[in-house]
């Protein structure tokens, strides 16, 4: 994909007016701290609200009609934003005391050595309290099972919509400096950013010019047109190649490995120190935008295919064959069977636990 100087990326043609509006706001008052205030309320973890909503809108576009009807029913939302509305629920939930247990499920801390060596090893990296990969497996099993309450089924769908987004963000698949949370950088004049939140939130927001649902829908439409008839057309089939809901650990580990490879090639190709030698805007920003757009597009496309597969293999099948045909008393819906065998805690996992699995905010 070609990136021009300036705004860079696929989005540049449609975003110009928004960006200039944003800039004139900045001249009048620090609109960024206003945005940040909102973002903090919603939880600035994992792709920010913009990224997650964009993934969700892309997925909505590729859901089969029957899958969409099912998802709307599960969520009790027949609006045009039924997935986008809940895409960041998991980030709000993790910041409540009732939801704290779910914080480790937003990432897999790959203990590799970027930039020289990037790799994900499920048994080494997931940790005994679970990770994004085990969570995707758990909620894939739970959402399609049919024995859970409406609330538990909705919870499973909300987690899936979120975690299939998280897993495409390279720094959610990396242990180094807690996924970059401890790497202090300057971006666009802000000198106490951390690399993780720049990737999650501030770089995408700089590109799009806002973080509302309508910004997400606009970005999603742009990426959808690239999938349907633009630069992603020839590669989109590869994004879902081999995806198999009956082997969710393998599929989700493949997604995590795919994103983790960008830590070496794009996120920090010259190591951490090189990121701390000046403003990441515009050069670094321009170098990473194509990857951010690619990963958001992938996340949405995969999510649609994954939900379509769950629907046809479980929900539609049950409607067709009736509940009685399905014997699964032996299925363990706690998801414990997906967890890797316990191993002693590494230093990096101890550090992550000590930090409370949170992320560092600017304020
Ligand atoms: C599976 O999901 C349920 C419901 O959210 C949760 O209680 C359980 O801990 C999860 N299991 C794993 C292994 O993540
Ligand atoms: Zn998350």
From TrEMBL:
Key word Iron-sulfur present: no
Pfam families documented for this protein: S1-P1_nuclease
Gene3D superfamilies the UniProt entry points to: P1 Nuclease (1.10.575.10)
EC number: 3.1.3.6
Swiss-Prot/TrEMBL GO biological process terms: DNA catabolic process
InterPro entries per record: PLipase_C/P1_nuclease_dom_sf, S1/P1nuclease
MF terms (GO), sorted A to Z: 3'-nucleotidase activity; endonuclease activity; metal ion binding; nucleic acid binding
Domain of life: Eukaryota
Entry keywords, A to Z: Disulfide bond, Endonuclease, Glycoprotein, Hydrolase, Metal-binding, Nuclease
Family from the record: Belongs to the nuclease type I family.
Designated name of the protein: Nuclease PA3, putative
